[in-house]
Structure formats: C-alpha cells, structure tokens
Amino acid sequence: xxxxxxxxxxxxxxxxxxxxxxxxxxxxxxxxxxxxxxxxxxxxxxxxxxxxxxxxxxxxxxxxxxxxxxxxxxxxxxxxxxxxxxxxxxxxxxxxxxxxxxxxxxxxxxxxxxxxxxxxxxxxxxxxxxxxxxxxxxxxxxxxxxxxxxxxxxxxxxxxxxxxxxxxxxxxxxxxxxxxxxxxxxxxxxxxxxxxxxxxxxxxxxxxxxxxxxxxxxxxxxxxxxxxxxxxxxxxxxxxxxxxxxxxxxxxxxxxxxxxxxxxxxxxxxxxxxxxxxxxxxxxxxxxxxxxxxxxxxxxxxxxxxxxxxxxxxxxxxxxxxxxxxxxxxxxxxxxxxxxxxxxxxxxxxxxxxxxxxxxxxxxxxxxxxxxxxxxxxxxxxxxxxxxxxxxxxxxxxxxxxxxxxxxxxxxxx
Length: 414
Prior knowledge:
Elements: E1 13-14, E2 25-26, H1 29-41, E3 43-52, E4 62-70, E5 73-77, H2 86-91, E6 96-99, H3 102-111, E7 118-121, H4 122-128, H5 136-144, E8 146-147, H6 164-175, H7 177-190, H8 194-206, H9 229-249, H10 253-256, H11 259-268, H12 273-276, H13 285-289, H14 291-303, H15 325-328, H16 330-349, H17 354-357, H18 360-368, H19 376-386, H20 390-409
Parallel strand pairs: 1-8, 2-5, 3-6, 6-7
Antiparallel strand pairs: 3-4, 4-5
Helix pairs in contact: 4-7, 5-7, 9-11, 9-14, 16-18, 16-20, 18-19, 19-20
C-alpha cells in the first residue's frame, strides 16, 4: 500500500519514554567495549542517529551518537570522549544501518569511524513512497501511530553534561527507527519500488566524500547586494577572516559575525572604528572583540590590485540558465520543455517527487547536449553517465525518447 501507513484517523500515541529507560552516556573505553560486545551479539539492523551543534560550534562534528539493535537495546555514545568508533564499525561491518536523512549524518559519523556499508534511509524511502511529510516525527506518526517530541532538535549538543530531557529525546529518536524501516520495506515491496530504494541506498553508501566548495564565501547570505568586484573582494577577505576566528574559537561563524555585517562592510567599506560601528550587526559581543581584524580585512580588499579581484560570477561547467535557451538554442529549449513534461507525468504516475525520479540538472544537461541518436538506449547511457541510477535512467529514457521522436515527426526538431 503506497503511502499507506494510515492510522485510521485516530490520534497518535505519544512516545514519552524509551522502553528500557534512558541509558547512561558511554564516555570511556570500558563502556564502549561493552557496547561493541552487546551490539555485535544483537540481531537485525542497527538504528543510528547523531546529534550535532549546528549554529553553535564550528563544523558539523557529532556530539552524541545513538544506536539501537534488537538484543542490545539503546546506546548513547559521547564521541568527544570516545572519538574513535573503528572497532564498533568493524563489529557491525556486515550489518544494515538504518538512518533517517542519511546524508545529514554520514559525514560526521565518518569522522569518528562509523561508516555504513549497507544502509536503509527511512526519509528517502518515504519520498519514494510519496509521503507528503517525511520528517522523522511525521513518518513515525503516519506509519506507526506514535508521536515523537521534537523540542531539542536545534539544541547545543556540545553542552556537557547533557540534560536528561535531551538524552530522553535522543534515545527516542532511535526507539522506533527499525520498526519504521520494516514497515517501509514492506510498503516498498508492495509498491514495486524496493529495487529502486536499494539502488538509492547503495549509491548513498558508496558515494565519495563531498569535495569542498569552490569559493565558499560566495554563499554569504545577502551577497546579491554586492555589485562590483572590489566589494566582492571585501566580502572574501572578511569572510576568510571570520572563518579563521570561528575555527580558533570553535564557534559557528554566524556567532562570530553575521553575514549581514560582512555584506554591509563590503557595501560601505568602513575606514575607521566609528564608520565600522555604524553597522548594527558589528555591535554584538563577539563581533566587537575583533573590530581591528574586520577593518584590516576591509582595507586589504580595498587595496588589492585589479588582477587580484574575484570575478563577478564563476564560470559554470554546465548549460546556461534555462531561461536563455529559447534565444540561444530554440531546439534545446523545446527538448527541455518536452522532457520536463515527461518527467512530471512519470513522477505523478509513480507517486514520487520529480527530483527523486531524476535530478533536474541531469535533464538540463541531457537536453542541452543530447546524444547524436536520441534512442532510448542512447538516452539511458547518457543519463547513467551523468549520474542517474539505473532505475531512473531506465524509467525516464523510453518516455523522453518517444517524446523527442514525436517532436521530430512534427518538424519541431531538426
């Protein structure tokens, strides 16, 4: 039954306490050894979750790891005190790990040595099944009929000691994760989507680590207000200064200096402390401590030679923005319009978001530079080269090829 975990209109039952109570936090080698032995002796998949301190600390490291397995119960591990989970990873090497929104937690888990070889992503399963809400709380409520308390999701998990209420919340996040996995597995099988899901999960597990962004300072919020290369150079210099300070202090960069202050400095280019303090966002405690560094960064950006200024826009490695296609290549624009219609219809027919059927960027690239012979086989091969999963390429290629053939027959394509 697709997207069928309906609780029949009854109110969900609140899940208030872990079944075995709140376990103690494991914070030493002896406790970790006991967890490893217990989980190695357990059976079935292992539920895994991690809590970070996003918005509080620098980076995305894990500050608590939660595990649950049949026969082992729940474990809460402090990865600050136990930063090496390689032995646990080896003990669970052949075990499926169940995560919700796996891409969010996999990088911080990899930092401490916990790297799933097989996984099941309950959020992605929900997307493939067409659930309208795929957050963990919504999925547990819709599929299993329990409500989870989500009040501590944005807490500062670097806090020590962790409050009991937070530990309760953390334990409950893995309490029903395997049960949710089992229910969704059955729904995927019934909907004929299990193989799709397995391909997706395998791709997530085997994906290489993400490479650092080129010019990450360009993602400064409000940078659209910066109109010239000189001001962009100031954004870059202040951003990089803030990054160094934030890393040294182990603070989220936004807690050192807000993005709005960086953009305001680039726009107004202050030369004195008095001018700097006309920027409201510089009056916070952390920002005031480093006023000399901010002015030095602004001055450096202002004095750079033209050859050292960043380009207004980075050159892209893909096709131009789609709104320019009609003028530059009308046939490509026609292919794109047709392919988008096909993808939308297929996604609707299979009850899943179109972006989970195939990445929009793959479709744009395919339409801008199509195969010489746009047969289903050639389109499938090109989609696979771009990175589409086998099930995605197979499903999309036949319908796109038919649509383009009809357009050629009508003389809409050369």
